[in-house]
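Teaching assistant's notes for section 4

Start the section by putting this record on the projector. Ask students to predict, before seeing the second block, whether Dystroglycan-type cadherin-like domain-containing protein will look compact or extended. Collect guesses on the board.
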Amino acid sequence: MPAGLDFDPTTGVISGTPTNIGQFGITIGTSDSQSTVYRGFYLQINSSATVNLPPVVVSNLSSPITRDIYQTISIPAAYAFTDPKDDP
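Reveal the predicted structure now:
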């Protein structure tokens, strides 16, 4: 089983988050009172093409920003940050 994945023999579910890429041979089996049967398959773990990259600063804001009490401060997020992949 690839690192980061677990198999629950009660439910038959493979779950988790794989931590290595590659092709992994997995054999599963079941038995009754008369025989045992095995079946193998390959699980291919690829590097993720949908990595959520963090937003980045695209403009340096002057700091500190000084305003008097009760003055409005408005800094549009699009002015200071961008999301490199437009992902959520």
